[in-house]
Design brief:
Layout lengths: L3 H14 L3 E2 L24 H4 L9 E9 L15 E9 L5 H13 L11 E6 L9 H9 L7 E4 L1 H4 E2 L6 E12 L18 E14 L5 E14 H8 L12 H10 L5 H19 L10 H19 L7 H12 L5 H4 L1 H33 L4 H11 L3 H10 L6 H18 L9 H25 L5 E6 L4 E5 L7 H16 L11 H6 L36
Helix pairs in contact: 3-4, 7-8, 7-10, 8-9, 8-10, 8-12, 9-12, 10-12, 12-13, 13-15, 15-16, 16-17
The structure holds serine.
Length: about 550
């Protein structure tokens, strides 16, 4: 039987035979890249080498990389998306290109010596071409030469068949993706590779990194032509074992069994979320890099993953502390290949338990606040629910749950709408470092950031036009605004500033986004004192950055 262990070994052996050096997985915490929170693909730590620097291990590399994609968090619970996953990859740093990469992918997938998959069930997709890069006929020709008929070769646009850059700028290019037809009936006329119905299983992605996306959004040809491939271990093993979800494989089953055992009212989706999230947290904590649950950056992601698990455990009727029980299973299943899990298990358990206890407190505070509102009004509106969420981190679903327990009629639609609105705002606000962060993280960032603009304007109004912003620092809890002013600011002046800001907030002025050149913005009277930082994009008045989007979203079917 194909186990994950066997798949990883086969893959690395195969590429060793093809002259690759096997390199270790890099850390989940990017070492030299402040623009992202976690390593989200094997190519990530290789960016300098894809751009031309010479790698000490040569031009052909392969590994099994630990990855985290928080952008996929909403999809967790479906059969195949995880926040944490293993990705097998092989790289050519200016060495072989499309022909060899595709031929080797085909050989590994279909040869009886390797995976031995039926070549008649293989479907592939290639890049359709657009203003930035031409149609990838070259890849399609290689597939045809291997016997894949034209009707199983699809051409898709950038959203589907382009990868990278991992951050805002950097190496990227067209890709060709391989899908295995499970034999399941098509879900409709439009069912094709990339459809989520379960007919097509995405197994591998060969990216041809021949472009560099620049800060101005241009795609410049790189001097060297690279290959970057990625195969999700969990997903591929599930497929090889004929399982329809990753949770049925040996990678998850012991975790899932434990969750089922602890549950009183089992539901599969919550169990999957807990298994995925706790596994992710264990791997991050076990690295011993000093990342622990907190309110900032990677620590904040850990916090959200743990709290989300606790909330789902509640839905399963799990009482008392449970995260350690699941973490023990993670250590059991994975520490053979990842010894840091065993080595640092004490730290892993301690942090999990501490965060779990903290959240229990949040929950009880939230319940108290809920009772207070309920006593006063005799009901809970969608807005109240949202306020509870904002002030205490009290989850909306939990408010709905308690309200239902109290026999209140819960207008689920209004709740959902409120929630969607919140998520919508978050999505729009997700930018830069917060890009792959969790929804509420960026929601807070957006609010705080807008508040700094208001504060700046109010300070200038009260203290004088000489006031200039000197810096600002935003965390989910507070904002700090540094500004220039020759004297101490009086209490009465502060009160005035506060009033102006609060009045402005209560007016609910819509936030507009407008992009323009620095000169145009200056003419319009925009205030900015960070010329270098805003050299190419500019904040104007109450303007917010929105997600600029990258070549390929992270939730698009691979993990
Ligand atoms: N970077 C590409 C991906 O993540 C190929 O490894 O799919």
């Amino acid at each position: 039987m194909w186990t994950a262990k066997k798949l990883v070994r086969a893959y690395l052996d195969f590429f060793k035979e093809k002259g690759h050096t096997i390199i270790p997985s890099s850390s989940l915490i990017p070492e030299n890249d402040p623009t992202v929170l976690f390593t989200s693909a094997g190519m990530h730590p290789l960016v300098p080498y894809l751009l031309g620097q010479s790698h000490p291990e040569g031009k052909r590399l392969a590994n099994n990389q630990k990855c985290i994609r928080t952008g996929d968090i909403d999809a967790v619970g479906d059969p195949s998306h995880d926040t944490f996953f293993f990705m097998l990859g092989n790289w050519s740093l200016g060495d072989y290109f499309k022909k060899e990469a595709i031929e080797w992918s085909y050989e590994f997938l279909t040869s009886k010596k390797w995976l031995g998959l039926d070549k008649n069930k293989l479907n592939v997709t290639c890049f359709k071409g657009d203003k930035d890069a031409p149609k990838d006929e070259e890849s399609a020709k290689v597939w045809e030469s291997l016997g894949i008929p034209k009707e199983r070769i699809y051409f898709f646009p950038k959203e589907d068949n382009w990868w990278g850059p991992a951050g805002k700028t950097g190496p990227c290019g067209p890709d060709t993706e391989m899908f295995y037809d499970t034999g399941k009936e098509a879900c409709g006329k439009n069912c094709k590779p990339g459809c989520y119905c379960g007919k097509y299983f995405e197994i591998w992605n060969d990216v041809f990194m021949q472009y560099n996306k620049t800060a101005s959004g241009k795609f410049e040809k790189l001097e060297q032509q690279n290959v970057d491939t990625g195969m999700g271990v969990e997903r591929t093993v599930a497929m090889l074992q004929g399982k329809s979800t990753v949770y049925e494989t040996e990678l998850f089953k012991p975790l899932m069994d434990k969750i089922r055992e602890l549950s009183r009212e089992y539901n599969e989706k919550s169990a999957r979320i807990i298994a995925d999230h706790i596994r992710a947290v264990c791997f991050v904590l076990a690295e011993g890099k000093g990342i622990v649950p907190s309110n900032v950056e990677q620590g904040y992601i850990l916090r959200r993953l743990i709290r989300r698990s606790v909330r789902h455990a509640r839905l399963l009727g799990i009482q008392g502390s449970f995260t350690k029980e699941i973490a023990k299973k993670v250590v059991e299943v994975y520490s053979g290949d990842w010894p840091e899990l065993k080595k640092n298990s004490g730290l892993v358990f301690k942090e999990l338990e501490a965060e779990e206890a903290k959240f229990a407190k949040v929950l009880s505070q939230g319940v108290k606040a809920f009772e207070k509102i309920f006593k006063k009004q005799g009901k809970i509106s969608a807005k109240d629910a949202f306020l509870l969420y904002q002030s205490y981190g009290f989850p909306l679903e939990m408010t709905a749950e308690i309200a239902t327990e109290k026999g209140l009629k819960v207008d689920k639609k209004a709740f959902e709408k409120e929630f969607e609105r919140h998520q919508d705002i978050s999505r729009k606000a997700t930018a830069g470092k917060f890009k792959s962060g969790l929804a509420d993280h960026s929601e807070v960032a957006l609010r705080m950031h807008t508040a700094t603009h208001l504060l700046h304007a109010a300070l200038r109004q009260v203290l004088g036009e000489h006031v200039q912003q000197k810096g600002s620092n935003i965390t989910p809890d507070r904002l700090r605004f540094d500004f220039s002013h020759p004297e101490k600011v009086e209490k009465s002046q502060l009160a005035e500033v506060e009033k102006i800001v609060n009045d402005a907030i209560s007016k609910k002025i819509p936030i507009l986004k407008e992009e323009m050149s620095l000169d145009q913005a200056r003419k319009k009277g925009a205030l900015a004192f960070f010329d270098a930082k805003y050299a190419s994009s500019f904040h104007y008045g109450l303007l917010q950055q929105t997600d600029s989007g990258q070549g390929k979203g992270q939730g698009t079917g691979r993990f």
